[in-house]
Amino acid sequence: MKRNILITLLLLLSGICANAREAVYVEYKITSSQMSGTSITYTSNGDSRTEMVMNGANMPMAMTNISLLLQSAPGKVYVLNDKDKTYNEVDAAKSGETGNNEEYEITLLGKEKINDYNCVHVKIVYQKSHHTSEMWLSKDVRGYGSFTTVKNKYMGGTKFFEALKAKGAEGFVVRMLIATGRGGNMQMDLVKAEKKDVSESLFSYSGYTKSAMPAGMPGGMEQPNMEKLKNMTPEERKAYIEEMKAKYAQPH
After folding, report:
1. Among 182, 199, 196, 133, which Cα is nearest to 160's?
2. Per the domain annotation, does 111 fall within a domain?
3. Are 167 and 106 in contact (CB under 8 A)?
4. Residue 176 near residue 188 (C-beta atoms within 8 A)
5. Side-chain half-sphere of 127: how many Cα atoms within 13 Å?
6. pLDDT tens-digit profile of 144-176?
7. CATH number for 76
8. Which domain, by its residues, includes 144?
9. CA separation for the pair 181, 82 (Å, rounded)
């Protein structure tokens, strides 16, 4: 009897392990003049999943974006809508995933201390899009060599970190400053970087159906007109926000 129970437990455990894999987990805090939020990236075996949640005083509700970069589909980004279980397939170059598929020029700007990390400060210019960013990399991040596979729209995985190392900027990114246009910037500060076991399903869009709507806000939500919002009276703004919440409310 005990032997049968042990065999059953082993079979269950092997089933759980088969549906999990080790991934690098990286979390950043995001701040800008208009919005704040978090960015979480899981990277494993050449696949990457990024979950970004943004909030703003003039936004009717939190904006969530989930994107997949898969080794089996180079040059493509899959944007997932968890609410409707739909996805969009987007060309990586057109979606702004510059960190993954462009050549770039790296310039050393010096050394600084950021959030108690000793850092090398670099400027990166992407040659096709002319997108620019600044990064602070540090070898003080424990186990930083394990995190250089991370791939999202700002970091291009092993090739990207090898290019930085060749320029004298070895380490992991503890801060990013990204130009957002019209003189604006978005700052991302490292919160956590570690390895963990995650579900295989994180790197799949199986169970999702292709959406007829363009990729963007969850559920095809219309982009808020920020200029219009700024010109509203407090009463009009409150009414608009309540209307949008009711229209696009996420189920609990």
Report:
1. 133
2. yes
3. yes
4. yes
5. 6
6. 999 999 988 888 889 999 999 999 999 999 999
7. 2.50.20.10
8. 21-221+236-246
9. 29
